[in-house]
Amino acid sequence: MQNKTLNPNTTESGTCTESSRPKFVIGVRLRGRDKTQACDPLTLSLRVGMEVMVETEDGPQIGIVASNKILNVRKDACQPFKILRLASREDLQHERDKREREIKATVLCRELVEKLELPMNLSRVVFFEELNKSVFYFTAEGRIDFRQLVKELASRLRHRIEMRQVGVRDEAKSINGHGVCGEELCCSRFLPEFTPVTIRMAKDQGLALNPSKISGVCGRLMCCLQYEHNIYKNLIKEMPKLGKTISTPDGKGRVIQNDILKQKVTVRLEDDFIMYYDLEELREHLPPQAVQPPKPAN
Question: Which tens digit of pLDDT belongs to each residue from 161-174?
Answer without folding.
Answer: 999 988 888 878 77
